[in-house]
Amino acid sequence: MKSLKIEEYMNYYPVTFSENMSVEEASLRFLKTTQIGGPVVDNKGLVLGFISEGDVLEKMLESIYFNENVAIVRDIMSAQVLSVKPYESIIELGQTMIKAKPKVYPVINDDGKLLGSISRNEVLQACYEHGRARHVIEKEHAAV
Questions:
Q1: How many domains does the chain have?
Q2: pTM value?
């Protein structure tokens, strides 16, 4: 069986955030993309944290209720980031995603620099393509 690597299916252009960005600006970034979470990075591309649509939505609802808007991304990001490497197995990641909460993982190099992201949808796409390719090969062998 061919080994499926994360780098083959990852998103090389993930939505990113800076730690000093306002929560309003972060919400706008989510609205302009179809992504549901993204890494918080410094100016060198090192991953500092992670923020999800849910984190932003919670803070936006709170700011509407209290009629104040003072939060920044640093206040609501998760500093403990689960990340993956591009050379890791997408199958193993899929098995982890079944058990773990994150739906999006930053893909980083060995120095902690952001390379992209990978979501459950992209893992599902890899599984679908692999299954379909296997089905075609089995069909061709059966015809011989």
A1: 1
A2: 0.84
